[in-house]
């Protein structure tokens, strides 16, 4: 059964508020003003309330009182725990994805990475995150395991929020790692894909801790 109008509005509100959280437009600790958010999006408070309830259920909003929510503050401990989970499951997903990735998939990723490497614009950070999402989410999807894919998506949200809220923007982080992942995927060998992804996550952890 298709969703009604309120359901579609709630989905749209969910995506909008989620992006505001991920992009640090709504940083950790921000008190959520349901009425203002609804008015800004031009929706009623019912779909906005549904959207906020979904985000609360996913752990991105926390309840202060019966009526007040705030954006969850992702601590260093949260971040490291999320990376630990990613280390356990993302190499596995990359290895599984080798079976269903097509040459066109890899060609597309290489093209996007090359464009990112050549980009010197002020919008580079946003473009970096779009590529990062594209690569990791494609591999999660191509793993063929929807539960694995869902968990990767949730853990990456925590690490992304922490990095965008805590670490100063840097020029083109992780490009070499991503290139090695694509090279490993192109071999068609699951163990190489697993190793490249595991090395990437170890390097992410090291870069963040060295920069704190």
Automatic annotation (TrEMBL):
Q: Cross-referenced Gene3D superfamilies, in alphabetical order? A: GntR ligand-binding domain-like (1.20.120.530), Winged helix-like DNA-binding domain superfamily/Winged helix DNA-binding domain (1.10.10.10)
Q: Which residues cross the membrane?
A: none
Keyword terms of this UniProt record: DNA-binding, Transcription, Transcription regulation
- Domain of life, source organism: Bacteria
Entry-linked SMART domains: FCD, HTH_GNTR
InterPro entries (UniProt xref): GntR_C, TF_FadR/GntR_C, Tscrpt_reg_HTH_GntR, WH-like_DNA-bd_sf, WH_DNA-bd_sf
> Can you give the residue ranges of the HTH gntR-type domain?
7-74
**Known PROSITE patterns for this protein?**
HTH_GNTR (PS50949)
Q: Which PANTHER family match?
A: GLUCONATE OPERON TRANSCRIPTIONAL REPRESSOR (PTHR43537:SF24), TRANSCRIPTIONAL REGULATOR, GNTR FAMILY (PTHR43537)
**By what name is this protein known?**
GntR family transcriptional regulator
